């Protein structure tokens, strides 16, 4: 029993020593002692001055000894050991001023380091908050709610709309519409048919359905995720302080020098003087100051780093693992394209679909409405709206019976609709079909789009020294491969569950310091298992943020590249300051060993060294001028303006593509009218936009990009867009002269339209990645 009491007392003592209150209290006491002694000395009250200084020194000895004992118990002798020996030496030889100066430096270093490296706890409150506590079980007397612990395999359960699936089970109803984003990170809802499995943690996005339990609470998917996060977090070893790594050789050198000075001279004062100037204040102060400065600078860029150890580690990282959905992609469906049946136009298809979807809470419906509003389409008020979960919505729009959602797979589709289905398969997109008065009228393709800043972030991460970039995702392999190819990643692993991601992280950690970036609950175990976990905290779940070492508070993945650069620079400055300060201390140690420096003078000299290294460490607060230039507010405003115009011009690009498609059929009056409409949109909207970019945006960007030559490639694209537009205009003039399109015009005109559509899409993408991503 005594043994257990002793262990408990030791743990309580360790907690007290690690308390920030003790560090701040010691700093206040030593500052007051030094100041009080200084005032007394100025008033010629030397006895009182010595008393103040002595008390300040004694006040530091007790906690300093405790810190050393804690470090020794963990298996390493830190920089505090020299400080303790120096404090004891000054007390032994009566050099109280030197002692209180060392005490002040020790207290300052501990306070700064505590602020830089005190980790926030990785509690899993959000994971546990999402976990269901009870379930509705079907019995002979009806449906009753029971605690989750009472559920056994084989129980018949009912999952209501919006409820979390309580345990793993098998769908007993016709179908169940589930939001599994909390498990897979994928934003699109899935439909599970009768007999298919449903995992705990998924949310019922449709109507109530019956579920046959196949596992108890502890054996279900969501409980496994919680356990994985706990186990992975427990594996993470504490980061060894940068200062302690250098102390490994500085400490024995200082002790040997002090012992040699005492042995040769026979003077204990010389040994104390050596210890005083050897007090590793450059380590105690410079490294924490540089790290804290780096943390401050990172926070200004929207990057919250939980402790100094994470910042140090990030500066050494060489492998980066990224989740796809919500990290490299926007994390929600966006309209990829709108296709209209012959005789209809895409803008009208989108307008009608969005008019009906205004009242739907479905994630795809919201994406369609957002796209219509972005294009400034005037929506109508629907009536008689009903929604069938998992299939779609129907209602009356402007007197017509309209349906938007999943098409009946048994219905015979026309050729244009078959082409839409093929394209959806190739692009990894979902399709919302529009029928008006029972006739298939159009389709809206939706896909989780790539983040605009993702390519820019990948390039910057590589330039910052990240050697290996790999995507880990629960999405399908084909979709993941396409995203990885666009970004130029080194590898991709798809269709992974939380356990698979943890295994992948552990495998990469064996070869290099590894960073994992994610945003969902399903990413929390992998974030905790990595050397550095990074959470997309702007829209990501609280669980992923709490399991991470770094949280990006802005919804931009390129801020991680900023954090890597800041971490590398802060670590470099910390090393420079520590090594420079130690070299100066070595020179002072040699002088003290020869009797040229007394303890008090040595303490003052050490203070001068401290000031020099601290000023150098504070350089970490300043921006690295080698990085990208800072944009003027007017330039940022221009970027936002033209980015908005890109969204508005999507219907122009679609009109060009639609005109080219119509020329592929029978090139009659309808095809010619489509070309005329596309040309009108080009002339009235797109070409003025390109002209304004060339003469307003590009000159404003040139200073930040290194000069006007940086935009030459984009300017060349403007020239090609203008050339193709003029060529289309010439074809239209010939058609008016000849009374219609001549057969010999068709190939070249079709080539111009398809080519213009391709050039515009590529040009828009390049501008968005290279220029628009620069603005916050």
TrEMBL record:
Cite the entry's keywords alphabetically.
Answer: ATP-binding, Cell membrane, Copper, Copper transport, Ion transport, Membrane, Metal-binding, Nucleotide-binding, Translocase, Transmembrane, Transmembrane helix, Transport
Where does it mainly reside?
Answer: membrane
Pfam families recorded: E1-E2_ATPase, Hemerythrin, Hydrolase
Q: Which GO terms describe its biological process?
A: copper ion transport
Residues of the Hemerythrin-like domain = 638-774
Q: Is Nucleotide-binding there in the keyword field?
A: yes
* GO (cellular component) term, any one: plasma membrane
Q: Which CDD domains match?
A: P-type_ATPase_HM (cd07544)
> Where does the record place the P-type ATPase A domain?
131-230
Domain of life assignment:
Bacteria
List residues traversing the bilayer: 25-44, 51-70, 82-109, 246-265, 271-292
Keyword Zinc, does the record have it? no
Give the record's membrane topology: Multi-pass membrane protein
Q: Which GO terms describe its molecular function?
A: ATP binding; ATP hydrolysis activity; ATPase-coupled monoatomic cation transmembrane transporter activity; cadmium ion transmembrane transporter activity; metal ion binding
InterPro entries (alphabetical): ATPase_P-typ_cyto_dom_N, ATPase_P-typ_P_site, ATPase_P-typ_TM_dom_sf, ATPase_P-typ_transduc_dom_A_sf, ATPase_P-type_domA, Cation_Transport_ATPase_IB, HAD-like_sf, HAD_sf
Q: Where in the cell is it found?
A: Cell membrane
The record's section on Gene3D superfamilies has: Calcium-transporting ATPase, cytoplasmic domain N (3.40.1110.10), Calcium-transporting ATPase, cytoplasmic transduction domain A (2.70.150.10), HAD superfamily/HAD-like (3.40.50.1000), nmb1532 protein domain like (1.20.120.520)
PANTHER family on file: CADMIUM/ZINC-TRANSPORTING ATPASE HMA2-RELATED, CADMIUM_ZINC-TRANSPORTING ATPASE HMA4-RELATED
Similarity annotation = Belongs to the cation transport ATPase (P-type) (TC 3.A.3) family. Type IB subfamily.
Name the UniProt record assigns to this protein: Putative cation-transporting ATPase
Question: Whose protein is this, by species?
Answer: Streptomyces lividans 1326
């Amino acid at each position: 029993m005594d043994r257990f009491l002793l262990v408990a007392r030791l743990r309580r003592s360790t907690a007290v020593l690690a308390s920030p209150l003790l560090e701040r209290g010691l700093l206040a006491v030593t500052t007051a002692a030094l100041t009080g002694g200084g005032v007394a000395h100025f008033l010629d009250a030397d006895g009182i001055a010595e008393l103040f200084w002595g008390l300040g020194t004694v006040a530091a000895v007790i906690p300093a000894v405790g810190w050393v004992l804690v470090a020794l118990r963990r298996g390493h002798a830190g920089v505090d050991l020299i400080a303790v020996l120096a404090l004891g030496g000054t007390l032994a030889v009566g050099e109280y001023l030197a002692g209180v100066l060392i005490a002040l430096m020790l207290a300052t270093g501990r306070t700064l380091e505590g602020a830089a490296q005190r980790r926030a706890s990785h509690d899993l409150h959000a994971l546990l908050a999402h976990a269901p506590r009870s379930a509705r079980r079907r019995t002979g007397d009806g449906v009753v709610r029971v605690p989750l612990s009472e559920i056994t395999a084989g129980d018949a359960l009912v999952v209501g709309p919006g409820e979390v699936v309580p345990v793993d089970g098998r769908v007993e109803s016709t179908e169940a519409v589930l939001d599994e984003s909390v498990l897979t990170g994928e934003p699109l809802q899935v439909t599970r048919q009768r007999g298919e499995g449903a995992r705990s943690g998924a949310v019922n996005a449709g109507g109530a359905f019956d579920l046959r339990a196949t596992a108890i609470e502890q054996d279900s998917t969501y409980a496994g995720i919680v356990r994985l996060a706990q186990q992975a977090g427990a594996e993470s070893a504490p980061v060894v302080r940068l200062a302690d790594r250098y102390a490994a050789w500085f400490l024995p050198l200082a002790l040997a020098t002090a012992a040699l000075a005492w042995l040769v001279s026979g003077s204990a004062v010389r040994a104390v003087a050596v210890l005083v100037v050897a007090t590793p204040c450059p380590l105690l102060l410079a490294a924490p100051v540089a790290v804290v400065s780096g943390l401050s600078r990172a926070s200004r860029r929207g990057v919250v780093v939980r402790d100094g150890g994470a910042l140090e580690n990030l500066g050494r990282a060489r492998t980066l693992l990224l989740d796809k959905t919500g990290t490299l992609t926007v994390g929600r469906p966006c309209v990829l394209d709108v296709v209209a049946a012959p005789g209809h136009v895409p803008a009208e298809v989108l307008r009608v679909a969005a008019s009906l979807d205004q009242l739907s809470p479905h994630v795809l419906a919201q994406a369609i409405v957002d796209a219509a509003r972005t294009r400034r389409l005037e929506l109508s008020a629907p009536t008689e709206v009903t929604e069938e979960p998992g299939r779609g919505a129907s209602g009356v729009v402007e007197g017509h019976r309209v349906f938007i959602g999943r098409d009946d797979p048994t219905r015979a589709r026309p050729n244009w609709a078959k082409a839409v289905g093929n394209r959806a398969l190739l692009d990894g997109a979902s399709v919302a079909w529009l029928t008006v008065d029972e006739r298939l009228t159009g389709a809206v393709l939706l896909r989780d789009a790539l983040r605009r800043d993702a390519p820019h972030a990948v390039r910057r991460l590589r330039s910052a020294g990240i050697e290996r970039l790999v995507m880990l995702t629960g999405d399908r392999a084909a979709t993941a491969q396409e995203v990885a190819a666009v970004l130029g990643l080194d590898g991709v692993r798809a269709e992974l569950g939380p356990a698979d991601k943890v295994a992948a992280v552990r495998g990469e950690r064996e070869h290099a310091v590894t960073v994992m970036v994610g945003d969902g609950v399903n990413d929390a175990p992998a974030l905790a298992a990595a050397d550095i976990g990074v959470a997309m905290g702007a829209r990501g779940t609280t669980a992923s943020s709490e399991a991470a070492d770094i949280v990006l508070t802005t919804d931009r993945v390129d801020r991680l590249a900023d954090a890597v650069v800041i971490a590398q620079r802060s670590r470099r400055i910390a090393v420079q300051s520590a090594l420079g300060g130690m070299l100066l201390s070595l020179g002072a140690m040699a002088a003290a060993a020869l009797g040229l420096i007394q303890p008090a003078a040595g303490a003052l000299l050490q203070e001068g060294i401290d000031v020099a290294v601290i000023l150098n460490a504070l350089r970490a607060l300043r921006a690295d001028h080698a990085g990208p230039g800072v944009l003027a507010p007017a330039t940022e405003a221009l970027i936002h303006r033209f980015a908005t115009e890109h969204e508005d011009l999507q219907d122009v690009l679609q009109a060009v593509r639609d005109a080219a498609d119509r020329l592929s059929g029978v090139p009659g009056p309808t095809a010619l009218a489509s070309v005329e409409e596309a040309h009108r949109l080009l002339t009235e909207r797109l070409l003025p936009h390109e002209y304004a970019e060339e003469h307003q945006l590009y000159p404003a960007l040139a200073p930040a990009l290194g000069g006007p030559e940086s935009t030459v490639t984009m300017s060349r694209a403007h020239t090609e867009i203008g050339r193709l537009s003029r060529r289309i205009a010439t074809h239209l003039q010939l058609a008016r002269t000849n009374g219609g399109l001549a057969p010999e015009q068709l190939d070249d005109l079709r080539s111009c339209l398809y080519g213009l559509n391709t050039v515009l899409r590529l040009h828009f993408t390049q501008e968005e990645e290279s220029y628009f991503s620069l603005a916050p």
